[in-house]
Amino acid sequence: MSDNDEARYTVRSLIVTGIASIIGTVLVLEASGRIDHTEHKDHVPVGDFKAIHIQPGDSFRMSRKSSELHAVCENGYLAIAADIDPSFRGILVDYKNRGVRCQRPSPTDLDPASGAQEQSDD
């Protein structure tokens, strides 16, 4: 290579260009409404969970580290709460937004969330 070959761009100009393009991208996404800012914190998911089907005798791998969440029974449904703020709870729902019960309901119980069975006047 000859001595005329010089770096066309300095490192500083490349860094400034990268930062400017990131800021520009965020501004365009914000102006077009593609970034969602929610005001209703009660509709924010607490976490994403999955169930692992285990048959007797099967082994599975699970992290030894705790998830920093715990489950509580809230009005007959399973709720997930954070260990650092137990007042922040979210009801566990399935893919159709149906609540997951804490216990198997009685066949005579019409509303498992009520916690009390309805009596008939016979």
User: Which percent bin holds the helix content?
Assistant: 10-25%
Q: What is the radius of gyration?
A: 27 Å
Q: Report the count of strand segments.
A: 3
Measured between the Cα atoms of the first and last residue, the distance is 102 Å
- The percent range for strand residues is 5-15%
Structural class: alpha+beta
Largest sheet: 3 strands, antiparallel
DSSP helix count? 1
- Mean pLDDT over the residues: 79
Poorly predicted regions are 116-122
Taken from the alpha-carbon principal axes, the silhouette is elongated
The SSE string, one letter per element, is HEEE
Major β-sheet strand ordering: 1-2-3
Summary keywords:
122 residues; alpha+beta; 3-stranded antiparallel β-sheet; disordered C terminus
Can you describe this structure?
The protein has 122 residues and is α+β, with helices and mostly antiparallel strands. It has a 3-stranded antiparallel sheet, with no helix packed on it. A hairpin with a 6-residue loop joins β2 and β3. The longest helix is centred in the first third of the chain and has 21 residues. The C terminus is likely disordered.
